[in-house]
Amino acid sequence: MTIEAIVLEIAAAARKAGRLMSQIPTAQKNQALMTLADQLETDSERIFTANAKDVEQAGENGLSNAMIDRLKVTDATIRAMADGLREVAALGDPVGAMDESCLRPNGLEVSRMRVPLGVIGIIYESRPNVTVDAAGLCLKAGNAVILRGGSEAIHSNRALADLITASLTASGLPGKAVQVIPVTDRAAVTTLLAQESFIDLIIPRGGEGLIRFVVANSKIPVLKHYKGVCHVYVDQDADLGMAEDICFNAKVQRPGVCNAMETLLVDQSVADRFLPKVGRRLKDAGVTIRGCGRTRQRLAWAEAADDSDWPAEYLDLVLAVRVVDDLDQAMAHIADHGSNHTEVIVTRNYSRARRFIREVDASAVIVNASTRFNDGGQLGLGAEIGISTSKLHAYGPMGLKELTTTKFVVFGDGQVRTT
Amino acid sequence: MTIEAIVLEIAAAARKAGRLMSQIPTAQKNQALMTLADQLETDSERIFTANAKDVEQAGENGLSNAMIDRLKVTDATIRAMADGLREVAALGDPVGAMDESCLRPNGLEVSRMRVPLGVIGIIYESRPNVTVDAAGLCLKAGNAVILRGGSEAIHSNRALADLITASLTASGLPGKAVQVIPVTDRAAVTTLLAQESFIDLIIPRGGEGLIRFVVANSKIPVLKHYKGVCHVYVDQDADLGMAEDICFNAKVQRPGVCNAMETLLVDQSVADRFLPKVGRRLKDAGVTIRGCGRTRQRLAWAEAADDSDWPAEYLDLVLAVRVVDDLDQAMAHIADHGSNHTEVIVTRNYSRARRFIREVDASAVIVNASTRFNDGGQLGLGAEIGISTSKLHAYGPMGLKELTTTKFVVFGDGQVRTT
């Protein structure tokens, strides 16, 4: 069979499975998730054996230690996957709810009913836990899912897929509701991205290169973010102690993630008091600062920032710092260099807080808290399948509800149109 | 200037205008819409003059009478455009509302705020009224818009654009909030579809060929429907008089639109009683019927349907008719041949009505009313910019709300993340 034929067969089977999935009662979907959680823990040896092959090959192929680390499945990984599935089982099911009802003058009753999207394709790199986490969320929302993980994790993903299929069929769900593409050729991805009659949504998760490739080649709608260039603006009326804690947390607590701060903007009227203190604390934590001229007047040890720093997503203990004239210059900087991901103002001023909230265009706009809160779990969505900085369908973290859509439902008693 | 440079300049100017538009108060947006409505009526001669050039060229280029008819701007067209703008001005402004608020255990207040999408590109054919209708809806929702009409309407569209720009600036709105691409080369479209940093959404309106071209070439999210293959299923428990009226309305009232019925499915147990009556009435109205074998047993005069009829969108006084065994066969037919647009069941049976509503996957699922009600105005959206059969962002008619998105807004008092 050609790669194209393999992918086509998977996509067509997913559409059929999706139709069945859309009608599965909540209790039965939860049962499948709980069964899978148990199976992962009791059958962990099978996963470890398959994963060891991937790790061995990764070593032979000269992958970096960091990448091998992300690839490795440990007892803790298994536990996290199982616990995650149990949490998703405990979440409310968005499917079937009716909303925005109205009675039209001609007597028609119109509502919107929440329904599954249908078939979701996930294209990702490295971490095998995505296979289980993504499958769990998609299933709970009544969708079928096609998973295309990185070639370096193929043995792990196949083993996980076998477990998932067994748990689905044991709970009376269609076995094809979760399918892993078993070939590692990139042609499988381009074929997948052309199946708009079988697939309703593509979610790419990984580096910017992968995501740009997916967007450029997909005929199917894509939800994604390219990068997170998140700012904290310390206003002239900020509580500087609070600002220091927020900046430290936003940069240092987990620098490698998309909602970490990449650029700090400081109002010129507080730069003298704020920068030396926060600068020392960041430096002590190992942070390299790349500052504008006015920053380096206060932090002589800082490196000089150039134009490449303002749009940079370092994902590391590096921070760009700029002293700005006022709120307007801060918001202009964010509009010019931000990535519509997460933007924070620290202030005690009511009007400027409101202006920042209304005028800044980002998936999450935050007053007086860390950038790190732009996360599905933290914002109350329960669990997330990713963060979107596209504005269509979802802007920000995507949870169960974002894996569904609404259809119009109309009840009449013989109405016809005359105009 | 090259075509690419022209389009890039327009797109960059639209992004800037969009940022300004997002902050314009409702009253000021309404003022601009009302001014434009008045201007259209007082300056209609300028539009007629420009339109006459397009109509003359269309004649020279040998366009069909139907196409020239769609191109022509009359007094009635002007009045409809002006009235449409006044209706949009009267609609509520979706921008700025907060929703789905929650208080997190750590004290963060989380909400979603409705905000404009930003910049919307509309790619359409023929009818110059789309220029005004689309601009009005996009503006009211706080967006900037780039319009790319058909080359055959270029003079009309340029004249309308001049009027729109004058009305915008007279009301203090950014003049570049509505821009018409002044070149007719198709390269302008492909360049436009690549500007994902400047444009947030593309809406193509026109024939299936245009739409497929846009989807294949766009890096920007697209909302669209390819076609409307809408079914009416007449159940064994249907009120046959009601079913006849609904079928007649769905097929005959306006056969050239996407929410007209294209295939009639009749339960075998009522075929003998239903088909001869409805068949005669449709035939008298000039409808050609293309039927399955069991249909032709009842309607000897019907043409024989073949496999190409079931997925056909005739947009004409032609109807495919199939006699089915039961509800399951009807729903399987719809799943196999439908276009997720509009599906109707006529029945007095409670359980089968509920099954049809839950199990059929279409942007509008209707019990006991005409397919023709799948329309933004009819379903209570006020006005519509099109119908989406993609499931992302919007499924069904798209009104003002569908031209916006939501961002997360978070109020804290110093919260940082520890895990």
Largest interface: A-B, 70 and 70 residues
Order of helices and strands of chain A: HHHHHEEEHEHEHEHEHEHEHEEHEHEEEE
CATH architecture of the largest domain in chain A: 3-Layer(aba) Sandwich
Q: At the third CATH level, what is the topology name of the largest domain in chain A?
A: Aldehyde Dehydrogenase, Chain A, domain 1
What is the number of domains of chain A?
2
Main sheet characteristics of chain A: 7 strands, parallel
Number of helices of chain A: 14
- What is the CATH homology-level superfamily of the largest domain in chain A? Aldehyde Dehydrogenase, Chain A, domain 1
Strand content of chain A: 15-25%
CATH class of the largest domain in chain A: Alpha Beta
Shape of chain A: globular
Oligomer category: homodimer
The strand line-up of the biggest sheet of chain A is 10-9-11-8-7-12-13
